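yo, Secreted protein is done. seq:
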Amino acid sequence: MLAKLTALAVALALPLTTAHGIISNPPAEFDPSKMRTSYVATIQAFFPGKFDDSPQVNVANFNAAFKAQSQFKTLRDMLDPHGPDCGYTYTNVAKKAIPSDGTMTWKNPDTGEGFIPSHTGPCEVWINDKRVFQNDDCATNFPQKPEVHLPVDYSSCTGDSCMLRFYWIALHQAQWQVYKNCVPLQGNGKAPGPAPGPAPGPAPGPAPGPAPGPAPAPQPVPNGGQCANIQSNVDYYGNDIKNIGVSGSNQDKVNQCCSACTSTSGCAGFTVNGNTCWLKSKLENRVERSDCLSGSYSASAPAPVPNGGQCASIQSNVDYYGNDIKNLWVSGSNQDKVGQCCSACTSTSGCAGFTVNGNTCWLKSKLENRVERSDCLSGSYTASASGGASCGSVASNVDYYGNDIRSFQVHGDASAQLAQCCDGCSSTSGCVGFSINSGTCWLKNKLDNRVERYGVVSGSYQKHHLRRL
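structure:
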């Protein structure tokens, strides 16, 4: 009986451990003898660094190591040798129409979600040999359910057909999981024009007119406006913050992309590829890529770090890993989020600080394990001698992984969410800080394991004296 129960448990667990997703639009077709949602190969972690930590730490370590190495220019370069060329998908099937909305849909039909949240890791989409989408952490940055729509530039699918290729590596454990899907597509019909025929011989007649003028000058590189150093046929791999659709002439696309960069926290530059603008936190890993346009942006003055109000020492791009008491939802500008998180810390017993990550405020019992994390804001909180509470050391783009006491939703603008998170920390026993991430305030008993996390705001909390980070 025990053996039967064990076998049943294993059988029931299999879909949960091997079911991870498929391309549903344009629809991929699969070998029926294989589990269509399964990974197709594994790779034992071989980059320098630690890869048996949390999924968030693993992906941060992977991306840092990938950018530091020179063996692979793209994720595809790394994954192509592992597993079947197109995974378990068929390529000799009817060509599928290009989706009219300009996206590729990824979903797990067995679980009703897109990417599995714990399966952090980069992914890429290619049309033939042109990369048309890339993100450093697809599961984190595309959390939508029941499916995810990745923006794809299909303009390079010319002629009668092309091949759509999807690559994803899941880094939640040291045995990395490789996912590959392919879909043959109907081309957009824009085949290259025919080669010119031979020039006709001269016909007898009057003397020829004046010789033609000089050949037209090459198309000028677009003016970057507020953005400088516009480069043609150049891409910067990775470090993507987000992407947006752009249209019109190359000058129009650069203008739209530059405008988006100037209004996006942490944007240092961009790459325009077709009708997609990729905003980037760093311009690293320069590669030549046909028809790309890249530019840099430097604000005349750095964006101000939010004022922590009752919370002090607001730090941008800083997270304090762990020691979370609870989390709550915050929204609005970074200043709004810090204010809401600080308020929550002041009203939460034990809150010594916090981290705001996206729309989540994480209240923390201690501000330990400081790590750099893009777009996080961390701060500390000090209760006044009269029994009041305050948070200080608020840092943008900083999260503190782990050490969570509890979490709760925070609402309103950034200040309101920060205030709610800070108040929550002050009223929560053992809370020393917090992080706000996507509208959730996480209270922490330690601010350890500091990591950079885009959109997170973290803060610290202490009673009776100021805590400096």
